[in-house]
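Is this the right way to post structure tokens for a design question? Let me know if I should format differently. Anyway, here goes:
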């Protein structure tokens, strides 16, 4: 997901047999009713963080099949663990840590990994994405748009080709989910600014919940605010890069429908909260986050099926038997499924398409959740809110969710980012830019950026220092397209 972290992953041979960024406003476990007491078990996986995983269960609970409804479960509250009483002694806990501990205490039990992940990333006061710029070399990770302008330009080529397949409509919502700094959209608009008919049809819709990032996007898109005149006066924001109107929305559902829509989701799905499950002698149990007696966070297992088991059962229906036979852990992302359903229904009714670009697998995800701080891997429970949390994207779930939601939508891919960008002409683009480069530094930067986007592993041509060697992301990232069937297959999925 980032250059240095990818290098770290390669150098340490980090095993990824596994491997799921609209943020849900509430967790399906917000009224989680179960309580916990110690239970000795040897079922904990070696993939779980060492020293922080404890399995807990209720009394003499017998085996419960995953089909059983949670409402029928008998609850034993005798083993309730209460975190230490409030103390007036000074504490070094951050605001978010105090909030998480208070939630766990108020609920009388642990919270799901998904709820923990959502709070860590998007808590309105202290979430990782909310009040800071986390992107780029000075941040915590680097994304493809920050690597090279060519990435945003190629996405612009794809969007314009899709617009032509749509019949060149005069009004189009161009939506980006989680736009970061706005770099991708800025490069897209610059690259297409000479195609007036296309840019004049666009209304840019940025789905962003962070006020800090909204300001950065406003700046990087070179926006100006124009006051309308009249009884219903409002502030209209225009990007001067191509003269297109820009509007911000906290969630996709607030983007107006009834207009053909092109949606870009680049490194968005990987930040959506995932539920983690582990196979036990009593069936599949959800991994939860609790507070231990030493006031540190730790993982525990739910004693009985949770509401999220309904999505687990659904995911099993999309899997082949051989995938499940030797499976001990699994991640599911209900928010990704629900988001995809919403996108598919919108595209099926209004026309258009969506592009999903992320790292993931074409199969079940086992245990992929990771934390990255300042380009290095850290423990998931270490100082919540100070590190990015992300998980591999389950492209099989996206496909099935889209196809189940609308019979007017076709799903294409996933293919590798390298194949996608190569088919759109990035090779010709880098050659043109190299021809026009005026310094050796410019040429070196272009070659390094190109390799990071389409290459695999360390760049063979690199002659600089080892700690700056470009790491190719071309095969680690995958691309999937969802389009209205009436438009035919999108480029470059035509074959």
């Amino acid at each position: 997901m980032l250059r240095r972290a990818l290098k770290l992953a390669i150098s340490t041979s980090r095993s990824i047999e596994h491997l799921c960024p609209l943020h849900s406003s509430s967790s399906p476990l917000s009224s989680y009713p179960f309580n916990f007491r110690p239970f000795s078990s040897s079922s904990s996986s070696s993939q779980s963080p060492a020293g922080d995983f404890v399995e807990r269960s209720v009394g003499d609970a017998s085996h419960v099949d995953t089909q059983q409804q949670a409402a029928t479960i008998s609850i034993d509250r005798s083993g309730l663990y209460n975190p230490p009483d409030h103390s007036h002694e000074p504490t070094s806990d951050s605001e978010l840590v105090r909030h998480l501990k208070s939630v766990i205490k108020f609920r009388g039990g642990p919270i799901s990994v998904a709820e923990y992940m959502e709070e860590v990333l998007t808590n309105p006061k202290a979430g990782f994405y909310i009040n800071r710029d986390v992107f780029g070399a000075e941040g915590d990770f680097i994304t493809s748009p920050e690597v090279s302008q060519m990435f945003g330009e190629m996405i612009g080529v794809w969007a314009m080709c899709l617009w032509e397949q749509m019949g060149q409509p005069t009004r189009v919502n161009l939506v980006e989910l989680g736009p970061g700094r706005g770099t991708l959209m800025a490069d897209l608009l610059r690259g297409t600014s000479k195609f007036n008919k296309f840019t004049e049809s666009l209304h840019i819709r940025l789905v962003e919940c962070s006020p800090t990032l909204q300001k950065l996007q406003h700046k990087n898109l070179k926006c100006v605010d124009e006051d309308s005149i009249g009884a219903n006066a409002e502030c209209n924001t225009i990007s001067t890069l191509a003269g297109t109107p820009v509007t911000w929305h906290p969630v996709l559902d607030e983007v107006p429908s009834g207009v053909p829509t092109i949606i870009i989701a680049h490194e968005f799905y990987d930040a959506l909260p995932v539920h983690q499950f582990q196979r036990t002698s009593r069936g599949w149990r959800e991994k939860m986050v609790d507070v231990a007696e030493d006031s540190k966070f730790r993982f525990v297992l739910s004693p009985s099926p949770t509401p999220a088991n309904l999505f687990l059962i659904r995911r099993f229906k999309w899997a082949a038997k051989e995938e499940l036979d030797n499976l001990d852990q699994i991640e599911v992302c209900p928010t990704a499924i629900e988001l995809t359903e919403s996108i598919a229904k919108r595209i099926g009714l209004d026309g258009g398409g969506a592009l999903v670009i992320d790292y993931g697998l074409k199969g079940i995800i086992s245990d992929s959740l990771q934390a990255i701080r300042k380009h290095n891997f850290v423990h998931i429970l270490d100082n919540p809110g100070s590190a990015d949390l992300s998980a591999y994207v389950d492209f099989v779930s996206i496909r099935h969710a889209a196809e189940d939601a609308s019979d007017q939508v076709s799903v294409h891919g996933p293919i590798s980012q390298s194949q996608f960008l190569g088919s759109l002409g990035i090779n010709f683009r880098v050659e043109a830019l190299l021809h026009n480069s005026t310094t050796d530094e410019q040429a070196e930067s272009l070659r390094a950026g190109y390799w990071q986007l389409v290459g695999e592993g360390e760049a063979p041509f690199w002659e600089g220092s080892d700690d700056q060697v470009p790491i190719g992301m071309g095969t680690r990232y995958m691309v999937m397209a969802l389009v209205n069937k009436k438009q035919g297959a999108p480029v470059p999925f035509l074959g």
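Format looks fine. Someone answered above. Worth noting: The first helix runs from residue 3 to 11. The two ends are 28 Å apart (CA to CA).
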